[in-house]
Amino acid sequence: MNIEEANRVLVEGELLVAEADITAAIARIAEEMTAELKESNPLLICCMNGGLAFTGQLLTKLVFPLQIDYVHATRYGHQLNGAMLDWKVRPQIDLHGRTVVLLDDILDEGVTLAAIAEYCRQQGAAKVMMAVLVEKLHLRKVKPGMRADFTGIEIGDRFLFGYGLDYKGYWRNAPGIYALKGH
User: Fold this and answer.
1) C-beta atoms surrounding 131 within 10 Å
2) Pair type for strands 127-136 and 150-155
3) pLDDT digits (tens, 9 = 90+) for 107-150
4) Residue 162, domain member (yes or no)
5) SS3 of 106, please?
6) What is the Rg, in whole angstroms, of the alpha carbon atoms belonging to the chain?
7) Could you give the CA distance from residue 70 to residue 76 in angstroms, rounded to a whole number?
C-alpha cells in the first residue's frame, strides 16, 4: 500500500466511534475489571499488535495489584483474512494457577483469541478471561455464543480500523474506530 492509498482509506472511512466514546468505554471496562479482579492478582496479557492501544489506555485505570505480559500471535499478518495461527511470542510469566485476562482490540470470529486462551489453559492458568475494545456482532464465532468477559463497544459486521485495529498494517493509530468504505 502506498501513502496515497493509505490516506484515501482514512478520508473515505466512516467514523463509527469517536475517541471520546472509546475513552468512556475503556473507563467502564476498567470499573468492571476492578470490581471483579481486584483481589485475584491477575496476569493481564496484551495481544499484540492490535491490543497495544487498548491495553495502554486501560492499564492506568486499573488501580490494584496485577502483572502484565504480552503475546504475539496472528492469523492475518497484513492480509484481510487468514487461517493459520502464527506464534511470534508466547507469554514469559508463569501462568500456572493464575487468573489470566487476554486484552485485545477486537473479538471478531475469535479464532486467535480462542487459540491463545487454550494455550493459557494448557500452561496451567486457573481462569482465562477476555477483555476487548470491540466485539463484532455476528454469528460466525469459532465457538457458538462466544463472548468476551469485558467488552467496550459492540459493532455490526463491518471491516474496521483505528484505535489498534489495522487496515493492511496501517491506521492502528487513527483516533477513532472507522469502517472501511464499501465493507
Assistant:
1) 25
2) parallel
3) 998 988 999 999 999 999 999 999 999 999 888 888 888 999 99
4) yes
5) strand
6) 16
7) 18
Is the distance from CB of 177 to CB of 162 less than 8 angstroms? Answer: yes
CA 175 distance to own-chain centroid: 16
List the CATH number of the domain containing 165.
3.40.50.2020
Q: Tens digit of pLDDT for each residue in 32-78?
A: 999 999 999 999 999 999 999 999 999 999 999 999 999 998 775 44
67 in a domain, yes or no?
yes
CA 18 to chain CA centroid, Å, is: 17
Beta strands in the chain (DSSP E): 14-18, 43-48, 67-74, 86-89, 99-107, 127-136, 150-155, 160-161, 176-179
Query: Which residues, 6+ apart, have CB-to-CB distance to 11 below 8 Å?
Result: none
Domain coverage including residue 146 = 3-178
pTM above 0.85, yes or no: yes
